[in-house]
Amino acid sequence: MSGTLVLVRHGQSEWNLKNLFTGWRDPDLTELGVEEARTGGKALAETGITFDIAFTSDLTRAQKTLKLILDEIGQPGLETIRDQALNERDYGDLSGLNKDDARAKWGEEQVHIWRRSYDIPPPGGESLRDTGARVWPYYLTDILPRVLRGEKVLVAAHGNSLRSLVMVLDKLTKDEILKLNLATGVPMVYTLNADSTVKSKDVLGDMSGAH
Question: Which CATH number is correct for 4-209, 3.40.50.1240, 3.10.180.10, 1.10.357.10, 3.90.380.10?
């Protein structure tokens, strides 16, 4: 019995547009972000997939993306579990800062290290490894068992929380995951084997639009 796991990064948020570090702050989607979510929903609707349950983070931009997708696929009342384990990476003292202002304060090299290293967190925040350390246990205890029972599970979350999952699912190295940018609003459809490994992966959209 093989289940289906669909991962979607939220559409563009107001702070993505303003080039701000967002993390656990809670801005809404932009008009473009709303359209990206709807486009992702339409792509899923074309596959004919219907879901048994959905998971999302504790943040508005992911929850709204999920709602828009569920509206497009005709499942607006789907049972949804929200948990901060799926929240974006916490950028700590960088949260709310313009990325150029952060470079002016700490230096371009230091900010680049915080953004692109695997295990060096910004002050008061999380590294990508830290993010994975809260995402992976939640995936193993709450999400994966449903997929392995043959359920179809939709997860709407964030660039870094989803990168943590993709790293495991796609068996990527630390260096490979740091180079991976997930497109906003683009569903990644995984079919899993009974041993939780990936049987197939299908990305429903053009990855060249990643930003």
Answer: 3.40.50.1240
